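Hi U.,

Before I forget, here's the chain from the pilot set. I'm dumping it here mostly so it's searchable later in email.
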Amino acid sequence: MKADASPAVRLTLLSAGADLILGGAALWLGLSEGAIALWGVGGASLLQIPPALSLRGRILDGLGNRGLDRERLVLRTLSHLLRLLALGLALAAVLALREGPGMRVGFSTLGVAILSLAFQVPLWIAKRRLAGVHPALGWDADRTRALLERAALLLAGGLLGLWFPWADAITGLALALHLFIQGQGLAKGTALRAAACGGCGSGCG
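Structure:
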């Protein structure tokens, strides 16, 4: 892992920086404009910062058992927060649909979606190249792929929102389902990894 430590560390820092900037902008714009899908994507992006920084620490420690318990705790917490965000997003979307057609989504949704895709695609490709080095890097690549999928959903919803006022709420429901599934997968994956790695050595992820 020593030969790959430097690029892997850079990728985690790029991830954290992108999640902070793009996620913060999406959350602020979404709340100020009443764009449900946009603030949902922003919140989900900000939640990815702690796992990225936790993984950075593990990489610097050689991806051994040191920091493993911390990473499991971070991922377990992330799984709960993602499902909580999914619930809030679904409730907001349902309420918006019940209130009837709202205003059409602005171009900020499209702008954030395009910027996210432009950054997340090469980031995911770079992470996928390192995924085989260690399982933890593979799981990190999966989390980036989830961000990429949400950006694609946001772009699709933004395009539909140019013509259909209900598109934002429908996109919010789709994002809520995506977040809930990711949260469930993280919860199960963390439990399985804890059981499998209970007595392992430094190769444990």
